[in-house]
Amino acid sequence: MFALILILNDIYKLDDIHELFYEEEIGATSIDSQGMGKVLLDHNINLPMLDSVRKLIDGRKPYSKIIFSVIKDKEKLDSVVEKIKKELDYF
User: Fold this and answer.
1) Is 80 exposed, middle or buried, given 0-12, 13-18 or 19+ CB atoms closer than 10 A?
2) What is the model's pTM?
3) Helix, coil or strand: residue 36
4) What is the distance between the alpha carbons of residues 64 and 75, in angstroms, rounded to a whole number?
């Protein structure tokens, strides 16, 4: 068995990713998430490292989705990973 964990920053792709899992007959769970750097910035916590984090985060979408799935066999895992990479334009 394999665990697949995907942090999806482009939440507009969520339906397409869910469709990929459905086509592969793989179940998945999606939850809302927010990066720690964004949380610290939102709470005005002053740490030296946050200046560089602020530059990375400014202008980005503040929320993402985490998709969890347990996949029984390697072939199915490889197939869905390739389809996800193609959908998200990761070569």
Assistant:
1) buried
2) 0.72
3) helix
4) 27
